């Protein structure tokens, strides 16, 4: 063999070596955590016909109801585990209804109430006359996937886990009314009694309204027989977390972390029934553009939170896509420090903020901001002007007599002049030598808030207010907000379906952790307390009406807009109902239309 | 040579340790809180406190450092805060094979195409072909990867649906046979590896061209031609071998890339590789995972440089270690 030939062979060997190593890695990476099932799917196309694919932004943190705290976790846990009651948001009234097999909290408005009660573990319940205990009668035909019955003991066992400080469950708050909670430690032996396998009694230290008792006692149970030997300090990293044992319409088939979660319909489930779609795959697709592209190509069937600016192109590109909206639960606002934060941080003294301390100035700021322009320019028909933090969707409590503060720069200027703010030589308003100049902070990575903040800056500049913009990394922004280091900021809240605003507006600034503005109004505190004492939520309506009037008058923050959540669906899904309580609220009833191009 | 290697290893230990210590303090002093997620309305204020206690974050930083040091010296880098308390090396062990697959395929493509294009440009210097290759290479070299990736997706996944836009496997791939499964995986790797290697190859081609041009003008090349050697032997045996010295530096410095991952590509193509692990750990303030990642990439940078130095000696007998 010639030298040339030898060299060529050696080079080819080296190249082949590299390729071999790369392929070896490929096989290794393919082997990963692969405990997938047998080949029911012959090829990709046919697998897609029996599989619903949902794109998600991030992986579930835990598939354990005691620990799971991300939205994805919540969605999946709801499909795997059984629940004591079914809950349903009544869009006609804005109230949440709780449903047991043979009992409902309230009568269902005609046209509502599509949720079957068969998913509930409770047959019925009885609230004590004094509202200090609630007794559930459980059905006796519910079984975990391993064949063991679901019994009242599972609930008592699970509540002890929820309340264990070593486990640090994010749902401890649900136990706040149980016996002993007022003294710091729930007395589980007395607070939760299980006289037999189908009777479950919760006892409270104070009278609790029925809807709240139902809400707080229906935390998802874990199977006690599977978890009883796990020590609390090992709970968070127990291998059992990777193989959840449930009883719901679906069970976990495969979980490739950070890639996908595959659920398969549980053939034997009677809570309420096996899911219609044989398999549901939740795929992690972190990039928004790629999620959109995948919806367009049909690689995924559901993408949540599509930005309004993408609708037209998406619907034009693929006729098999439908964009559905639901709301209103989320709003953006501009926060103004009502109190001098620096002074409060240093000495704990509450003094009005030099710029935003006066309600009239805050009102002027709201009137100076063209909220309609932000909605027209960005959210379009998916945005609604926001007056207060009571959502128009909560019809039973919403005050529809409030007229939004209109965009009126002239009125705003007049108000500011009356408050002593006069234009200085540079055109910026001044009062006692202080310029009306501040920095408006917001968190990074939010195109909508960036858009809004630029309009706000222009609006304020036109009435002589100097507003600088600063974008901070979300973690840093949130920490600064908590430490009261920001004077003005733009952020948003997602509201709960029960109105409980004391955390955000309570006058006790140490207790109200989210009162970042420092707004204090004793009447508002009083109204919240009065509303809480009503055993029937609708009885609190007059208090909530007044509450909204006060917020509208005092403008502790400038409420900007409510946003409809917009979800993209493939039209091959049938039977989906969107509800404010969640996109996947009736997913066990969805069906898939088989694709036309697959020969069956 | 061996004593040189030994010395370099000895120096590397305090260096890596210093990097880790610095990282330890920087991430703890930076704003942000690993328990921040649990501070929201509806969650008891106790939860964040309990979580911090579990993570041992309530101790003063120097005490935390001593405890951490004791654990690290026993090889225990702790459990991840943000990923269901998995041991950090388990998290890394899951992400590493994926990253390495992409990186190795990319590197092979990078160097093969880079060297090839570089050599062609050099021997056809100032021709149309050279100018065309140079302009094209510069065009791709200066293109941001994430943008290029999105354009490739629009072109090859949306307009002409030839390749999948993301993920490692097709839905239902768990039912495939082993060959079909690997082919499906390769099919999913085409776009990301192309994006990464076009960009990288363009850079390498510039290096090779420059260094080839220098070598081709040397006297010994003229001698080789004068003694009647075929042009191929002159170029590939006499010239290329000498021209590859700077490329070896590049090879050494790409070692950390193999393990640290390509963030944008991983995010866009939804690969759960090292890049995403690192960045998500930083955003979640997952201290143990950040430190473990720093340890791995720090060690690899040191090793990569050492590897390059050794390769110099192998490629060029004039260099003695």
Helix/strand layout:
The complex is a heterodimer of chains A (600) and B (321).
Chain A: H1 3-31, H2 44-49, E1 51-56, H3 71-80, E2 86-90, E3 95-99, E4 122-127, E5 133-138, H4 152-163, H5 188-191, E6 192-193, E7 199-203, H6 210-217, H7 224-227, E8 250-256, E9 260-265, E10 279-284, H8 288-297, E11 302-303, H9 311-317, E12 321-336, H10 341-347, H11 359-368, H12 371-379, E13 383-385, H13 409-418, E14 422-423, E15 429-431, E16 434-435, E17 437-443, H14 447-462, E18 466-472, H15 474-482, E19 488-494, H16 502-505, H17 522-533, H18 541-554, E20 557-570, E21 573-574, E22 591-592
Parallel strand pairs in A: 1-10, 17-18, 17-19
Antiparallel strand pairs in A: 2-3, 4-5, 5-7, 6-7, 8-9, 9-10, 11-20, 12-19, 12-20, 13-20, 14-15, 15-16, 21-22
Chain B: H1 2-29, H2 45-55, H3 61-73, H4 88-123, H5 128-141, H6 145-159, H7 178-216, H8 219-226, H9 231-243, H10 245-260, H11 263-268, H12 274-283, H13 287-315
Helix pairs in contact in B: 1-13, 4-5, 4-7, 4-10, 4-13, 5-7, 6-7, 7-9, 8-9, 10-13, 12-13
Structural account:
The complex is a heterodimer of chains A (600) and B (321). With 600 residues, chain A is an alpha+beta fold. Helices cover 30% and strands 20% of the residues of chain A. Chain A has 18 helices and 22 strands. Chain A has helices at residues 3-31, 44-49, 71-80, 152-163, 188-191, 210-217, 224-227, 288-297, 311-317, 341-347, 359-368, 371-379, 409-418, 447-462, 474-482, 502-505, 522-533, 541-554; strands at residues 51-56, 86-90, 95-99, 122-127, 133-138, 192-193, 199-203, 250-256, 260-265, 279-284, 302-303, 321-336, 383-385, 422-423, 429-431, 434-435, 437-443, 466-472, 488-494, 557-570, 573-574, 591-592. In chain A, the strands form six sheets. In chain A, strands 11, 12, 13, 17, 18, 19 and 20 form a seven-stranded mixed β-sheet that branches. In chain A, strands 1-10-9-8 form a four-stranded mixed β-sheet. A four-stranded antiparallel β-sheet of chain A has the order 4-5-7-6. In chain A, α11 packs antiparallel against α13 (409-418), α12 (371-379) packs antiparallel against α14 and α17 packs antiparallel against α18. The N and C termini of chain A lie far apart (58 Å). Chain B is mainly α and 321 residues long. Chain B contains 13 helices and no strands. Chain B has helices at 2-29, 45-55, 61-73, 88-123, 128-141, 145-159, 178-216, 219-226, 231-243, 245-260, 263-268, 274-283, 287-315. In chain B, α4 (88-123) runs antiparallel to α10 (245-260) and α12 (274-283) runs antiparallel to α13 (287-315). The radius of gyration of chain B is 24 Å and the shape is globular. Chain B starts with a helix and ends in a 6-residue tail after the last helix. The chains are: A alpha+beta (600), B mainly alpha (321). At the A-B interface, α1, α2, β10, α8 and α15 of A face α2, α4, α6 and α7 of B.
């Amino acid at each position: 063999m010639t030298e040339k030939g030898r060299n060529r062979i050696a080079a080819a060997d080296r190249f082949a070596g590299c390729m071999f190593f790369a392929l070896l890695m490929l096989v290794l990476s393919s082997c990963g955590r692969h405990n997938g099932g047998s080949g029911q799917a012959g090829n990709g196309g046919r697998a897609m016909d029996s599989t619903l694919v949902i794109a998600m932004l991030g992986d579930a943190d835990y598939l354990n109801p005691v620990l799971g705290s991300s939205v994805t976790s919540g969605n999946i846990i709801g499909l795997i585990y059984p629940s004591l009651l079914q809950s349903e948001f009544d869009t006609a009234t804005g109230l949440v209804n709780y449903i047991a097999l043979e009992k409902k909290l309230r009568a269902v408005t005609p046209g509502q109430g599509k949720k079957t009660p068969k998913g509930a573990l409770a047959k019925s319940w009885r609230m004590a006359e004094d509202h200090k205990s609630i007794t559930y009668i459980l059905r006796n035909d519910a079984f975990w996937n391993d064949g063991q019955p679901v019994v009242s003991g599972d609930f008592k066992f699970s509540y002890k886990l929820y309340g264990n400080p070593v486990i640090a469950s994010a749902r401890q708050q649900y136990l706040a009314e149980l016996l002993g909670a007022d003294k710091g430690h729930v007395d589980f032996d007395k607070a939760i009694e299980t006289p037999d396998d189908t009777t479950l009694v919760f006892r409270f230290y104070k009278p609790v309204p029925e809807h709240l008792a139902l809400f707080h006692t229906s935390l998802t149970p874990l199977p006690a027989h599977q978890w009883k030997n796990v020590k609390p300090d090992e709970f968070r990293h127990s291998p059992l977390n990777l193989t959840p044992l449930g009883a719901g319409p679906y069970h976990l088939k495969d979980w490739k972390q950070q890639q996908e979660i595959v659920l398969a319909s549980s053939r034997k489930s009677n809570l309420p029934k096996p899911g219609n779609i044989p398999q549901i795959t939740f795929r992690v697709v972190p990039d928004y553009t790629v999620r959109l592209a995948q919806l367009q190509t049909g690689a995924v069937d559901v993408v949540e939170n599509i930005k309004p600016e993408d609708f037209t192109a998406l619907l034009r590109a693929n006729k098999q896509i439908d964009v559905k909206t639901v709301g209103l639960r989320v709003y953006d606002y501009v926060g103004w420090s009502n109190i001098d934060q620096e002074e409060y941080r240093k000495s704990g003294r509450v003094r009005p903020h030099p710029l935003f301390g006066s309600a009239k100035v805050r009102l002027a700021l709201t009137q100076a901001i063209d909220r309609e322009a932000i909605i027209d320019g960005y959210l379009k028909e998916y945005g609604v002007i926001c007056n207060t933090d009571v959502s128009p969707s909560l019809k039973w409590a919403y005050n529809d007599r409030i007229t939004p503060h209109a965009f009126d720069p002239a009125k705003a200027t007049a108000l500011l002049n009356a408050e002593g703010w006069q234009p200085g030589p540079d055109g910026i308003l001044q009062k006692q030598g202080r310029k009306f100049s501040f920095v408006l902070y917001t968190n990074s990575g939010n195109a909508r808030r960036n858009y809004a903040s630029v309009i706000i800056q222009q609006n304020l500049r036109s009435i002589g207010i100097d507003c600088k913009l600063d974008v901070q990394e979300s973690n840093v922004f949130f920490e600064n907000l908590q430490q009261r280091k920001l004077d003005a900021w733009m952020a948003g809240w997602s509201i709960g379906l029960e109105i409980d605003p004391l955390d955000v507006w309570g006058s006790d600034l140490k207790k109200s952790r989210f009162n970042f503005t420092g707004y204090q109004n004793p009447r508002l505190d009083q109204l919240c307390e009065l509303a809480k004492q009503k055993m029937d939520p609708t009885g609190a309506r007059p208090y909530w009406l007044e509450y909204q009037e006060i917020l509208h008058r005092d403008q502790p923050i400038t409420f900007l807009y409510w946003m409809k959540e917009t979800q993209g669906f493939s039209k091959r899904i049938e039977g989906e109902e969107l509800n404010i309580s969640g996109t996947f609220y009736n997913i066990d009833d969805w069906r898939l239309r088989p694709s036309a191009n697959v020969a069956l | 040579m061996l004593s040189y290697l030994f010395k370099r290893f000895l120096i590397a230990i305090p260096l890596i340790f210093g990097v880790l210590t610095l990282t330890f303090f920087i991430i703890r002093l930076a704003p942000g809180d690993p328990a921040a997620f649990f501070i929201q309305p509806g969650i008891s204020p106790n939860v964040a406190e309990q979580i911090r206690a579990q993570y041992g974050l309530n101790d003063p930083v120097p005490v935390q450092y001593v405890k951490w040091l004791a654990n690290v010296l026993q090889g225990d880098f702790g459990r991840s805060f943000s990923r269901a308390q998995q041991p950090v090396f388990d998290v890394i062990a899951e992400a590493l094979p994926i990253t390495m697959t992409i990186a190795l395929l990319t590197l092979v493509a990078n160097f093969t195409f880079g060297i090839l294009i570089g050599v062609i440009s050099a021997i056809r210097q100032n021709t149309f072909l050279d100018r065309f290759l140079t302009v094209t290479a510069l065009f791709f070299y200066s293109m941001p990867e994430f943008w290029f990736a999105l354009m490739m997706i629009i072109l090859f996944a949306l307009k002409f649906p030839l390749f999948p836009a993301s993920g490692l496997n097709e839905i239902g791939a768990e039912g495939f046979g082993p060959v079909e499964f690997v082919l499906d995986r390769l099919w999913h790797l085409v776009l990301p590896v192309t994006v990464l290697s076009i960009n990288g190859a363009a850079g390498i081609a510039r290096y090779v061209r420059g260094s080839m041009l220098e070598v081709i003008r040397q006297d010994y090349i003229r001698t080789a031609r004068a003694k009647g050697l075929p042009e191929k032997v002159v170029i590939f045996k006499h010239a290329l071998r000498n021209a590859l010295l700077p490329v070896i530096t590049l090879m050494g410095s790409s070692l950390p890339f193999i393990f640290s991952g390509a963030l944008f590509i991983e995010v866009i193509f939804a690969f759960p590789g090292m890049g995403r692990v690192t960045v998500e750990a930083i955003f979640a303030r997952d201290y143990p995972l950040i430190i473990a990642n720093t340890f791995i990439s720090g060690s690899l940078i040191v090793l990569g440089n050492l590897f390059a130095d050794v390769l110099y000696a192998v490629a060029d007998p004039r260099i003695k270690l």
